[in-house]
Amino acid sequence: MIAVDETALRCDFLETYHIPDYRALPARQAALFACGLKENARIKLKLSGYPVSLDTMLLAVVADYLAILAWQNTENGAKNRKRPRSILDTLTGGKTTSEGEGFDSAEDFEAWRASMLGGDANA
């Protein structure tokens, strides 16, 4: 955690435990406190790769769906114009969806699997 963002870790220790200098603690105790930080702690968000907490993302999804429902009942919605911008995409930079890889046949999948495992397809 220190290597990723020491400033975020120090802020989390101060905010959560009111400890201004985690280095004054024994190493095991500092590690225990670091593991005990909540999931929305700055350092845990940074380690997870998410720009915002899960709660914030879920609220953004709810707001986005509500906006779509309201928009569908307008003249613009009927003509598929001026779709509301996604709050979730704004918060995450549009990095919330991933395109899955598809396969045309079982043989294609087996060939891909073999290349990933470094062996033959019958393994």
Task: Describe it.
The chain is an all-alpha fold. The chain has two domains: 2-48, no CATH class; 52-123, no CATH class. It has helices spanning 2-17, 27-35, 42-48, 54-72, 75-78, 87-92, 106-117.
Provide the descriptors you would attach to this structure in a database record.
mainly alpha
Sequence-ordered SSE layout with sheet pairings:
Elements: H1 2-17, H2 27-35, H3 42-48, H4 54-72, H5 75-78, H6 87-92, H7 106-117
Portion in strands: under 5%
* Spans of at least 5 consecutive residues with low confidence: none
Tally of individual domains:
2
Largest sheet: none
- The residue-averaged pLDDT reads 88
Total DSSP E strands: 0
Q: Provide the helix percentage.
A: 55-70%
Radius of gyration: 23 Å
Please tally the helical runs, counting DSSP H or I stretches of 4 or more residues. 7
Structural class designation: mainly alpha
* N-to-C CA distance: 38 Å
How would you classify the quaternary structure? single chain
Shape: flat
